[in-house]
Write a structure and sequence with these properties.
The complex is a heterodimer of chains A (231) and B (59). With 231 residues, chain A is an all-alpha fold. Chain A contains seven helices and no strands. Chain A is globular and about 75 Å long. Chain A starts with a helix and ends with a helix. The longest helix of chain B has 42 residues. Chain B contains one helix and no strands. Chain B has 59 residues and is mainly alpha-helical. Classes of the chains: A mainly alpha (231), B mainly alpha (59). At the A-B interface, helix 1, helix 3 and helix 7 of A face helix 1 of B.
Chain lengths: 231, 59
C-alpha cells in the first residue's frame, strides 16, 4: 500500500506542477486562431486525462478478459480498478471538453461529432459497470456480465482514437503523433508531455491502490463469513 | 484576464476533485485495514496463536 500511495501522490504532485506550468509558463495561442485563447489551456488537462482514460480502459479490457477466460481473482481486481479509474478520468475528459466547447464553439456538446459521442459512450459504459457492480451482490454471474461489458466496450477505444483522423467534424484533429510532426510548438509539447506523464503515474497509482482495496474487501468478506460460521 | 480567472478556478476545482477522490480511496483502505485487523484479532487471539491457551490455564 505504501508503494501505491507513493506512486499516487507523486502523480498528483506532477499533475499540480504541470498545470502550474500550463497556466504560468506555456505560451499563449494566437487570438486569430481561437475564439477563446485562454480556454485553450484546458488542453493541458483534457488531453492527458483522455490518455489516462485510455490506459484505464485498457486495464478494464485486460481485467475483463482475464476474468472471463482464466477466472483469475487478480484479473477481476484489475477489472474493478480499471473501471473506477476509467470512470474518473472519463468524467474529467468529458467535463473539461464541455467547458472548452462552451468557450470555443459556443456549445458544450455536438451530437453529430463522432469522437465526442464514442468517448461519451465509453464514459457511460464505465458509469454502468461501476454503479451496476456496486448495486449487485458479488457472484460469478454478475462478474461475467460486467466483464462482458468491459471486454466488448473496449472496441470504442480504437474507434475514439481514429475518429478525428477519419471524420473531423467539430473536435480538432490530432496535434501530436502525426506524419507532419504535429502542430504545437516545443514549449507546449513539453508541458503536454509532463502532464501526460503525471496523469499516467497518477492513474497507475490509483489502480494499484484500488486493486489493493478490492483485495482487502475480499479478505474481509471471507473472514466475516468464517467468523459467522463459527458463531 | 477574465478568461484566465475562470481557467484558474476550473483548474483548481478539478485539482480539488481528484484530491478528494484520492483521499476517499486512501481512507477506505485505512478503514478496511483497521476492520481486518480487528476481525483477525477476534478470530485468532494472541494467546491461542502459539498453541496454548493461558486464559483457561489456572497455573
Amino acid at each position: 500500500m505504501k508503494l501505491a500511495n507513493a506512486v499516487l501522490f507523486t502523480g498528483f504532485a506532477g499533475i499540480g506542477g504541470s498545470l502550474l506550468l500550463a497556466f504560468l509558463w506555456a505560451p499563449s495561442v494566437s487570438i486569430d486562431a481561437f475564439e477563446s485563447p485562454a480556454a485553450q489551456r484546458i488542453f493541458y488537462w483534457h488531453v492527458p486525462a483522455a490518455w489516462a482514460a485510455f490506459i484505464a480502459f485498457g486495464a478494464l479490457f485486460i481485467g475483463s478478459a482475464g476474468w472471463l477466460f482464466k477466472r483469475s481473482e487478480r484479473m477481476w481486481r484489475l477489472h474493478v480498478a480499471g473501471s473506477e479509474a476509467g470512470l474518473a478520468t472519463g468524467l474529467m475528459t468529458v467535463w473539461s471538453g464541455c467547458v472548452w466547447g462552451a468557450a470555443e464553439w459556443g456549445t458544450p456538446w455536438d451530437w453529430t461529432d463522432v469522437r465526442l459521442n464514442t468517448f461519451g459512450l465509453l464514459t457511460l459504459l464505465a458509469i454502468y459497470v461501476v454503479l451496476g457492480r456496486n448495486s449487485q451482490p458479488d457472484g460469478v454471474e454478475s462478474r461475467d456480465t460486467f466483464a462482458a461489458f468491459g471486454l466488448y466496450g473496449f472496441v470504442l477505444v480504437p474507434l475514439t482514437y481514429i475518429a478525428t483522423r477519419i471524420w473531423t467534424i467539430r473536435h480538432p484533429g490530432p496535434v501530436v503523433g502525426t506524419d507532419d510532426g504535429g502542430s504545437i510548438n516545443s514549449d507546449m509539447g513539453l508541458v503536454l508531455l509532463v502532464s501526460a506523464l503525471s496523469f499516467t503515474v497518477f492513474i497507475v497509482g490509483h489502480m494499484m491502490a484500488s486493486t489493493r482495496l478490492t483485495l482487502l474487501e475480499q479478505r474481509l468478506q471471507a473472514l466475516q463469513a468464517e467468523t459467522d460460521k463459527v458463531i | 484576464m477574465e478568461g484566465m480567472t475562470y481557467l484558474a478556478v476550473g483548474y483548481f476545482g478539478m485539482l480539488v476533485a481528484i484530491a478528494l477522490w484520492t483521499y476517499t480511496v486512501v481512507q477506505r483502505s485505512r478503514r478496511l485495514e483497521d476492520r481486518l485487523a480487528a476481525l483477525e484479532s477476534v478470530a485468532s487471539p494472541p494467546a491461542a496463536s502459539d498453541g496454548t491457551n493461558n486464559e483457561l490455564d489456572p497455573n
